[in-house]
Amino acid sequence: MIHEVDDVIERLLKKGALAGSGIDVSFEAPTRDWAARRNTTAVNAYLYDIREDVRRRHRGSTPVEDGRGIVLKRRQPPRWFRLSYLVTAWTKQPKDEHRLLSAVLAALLPRELIPPDELPSALSALGLSMPLTVAGLQTEARSMAEIWSALGGELKPSLDLVVTAPFPAYPEYDVGPPVTEGAAVRVRAVDGGAEDSPERRHRPRQVARAAAARAAARGLPGEHGPDATAAGHPDPERAQK
Questions:
Q1: Are residues 212 and 234 in contact, defined by beta-carbon separation less than 8 angstroms?
Q2: What are the start-end ranges of the E strands in the chain?
Q3: Do 158 and 202 fall into the same domain?
């Protein structure tokens, strides 16, 4: 999931702020050694924090349906995680870095919500949009100065980019087939005989309605007549009563 969020960020930057510029997007830690090895203009998006957004946690399960609306499986709802990136520009002149950061900010500000059709396959399969915030208030315990100190570098202008991404919860589990028949009741005599006790079947109302809908779709009359089907009774005599 994390590497797919990296791909989303890289695509947003290369199609927006960096379109046609040939500027590279790096996800390495911007340490002193990395800065010394760098010999081209670059935008760095360093992932420095991963935390679950517990406010988005849900209990229970969600159904997985086929094209006909039949539930095939159930799965746990996804867990949401906040991925925090430190976005910096690396050029030879500070003013050029500021211009590059301004272009990055202009490209990311309108993208507050990334729709599923713009996400990679695993994220897109969940059918959920992915929130994105840039240059927001710091809510984590650590400050930017502490992060730069841990990296061993000097403080630079940066944008704090936070992507809240869903992470699929496992496992999925199968469910039983849909109910198509009702319960059967047979009454026996005291001695256990069953000669004079014909079996009676009762179909739940929703099953009878589903059968009537299927018959109507095929242009056929109800299985036991419209009145009996609407009442949920398979026996026309009972329906008339």
A1: no
A2: 24-26, 42-52, 62-65, 71-75, 79-90, 113-114, 130-134, 159-167, 173-174, 183-185, 200-202
A3: no
DSSP-derived pairing of the beta strands 42-52 and 24-26: parallel
Whether residue 157 is found in the same domain as residue 200: no
pLDDT one digit per residue (tens) for the chain, 241 residues: 889 999 999 988 888 778 777 888 899 999 888 888 888 888 999 999 999 888 877 776 777 666 776 776 776 778 889 999 999 999 888 899 999 999 999 889 888 888 888 888 778 877 888 899 888 765 555 677 788 888 887 788 889 999 999 887 766 666 666 666 667 777 776 666 655 555 555 555 655 666 666 666 666 555 444 444 444 444 444 444 4
Question: Does 202 reside within a domain?
Answer: yes
Q: Could you give phi then psi for residue 35, rounded to 5 degrees?
A: -65, -35
Amino acid at 133: T
Cis peptide bond upstream of 171, omega within 30: yes
Q: Can you give the pTM of this predicted structure?
A: 0.65
Structural domain contains residue 63: no
3 state DSSP class of 222: coil
Pairing of strands 71-75, 62-65: antiparallel
Which CATH number characterizes residue 122's domain? 3.30.2000
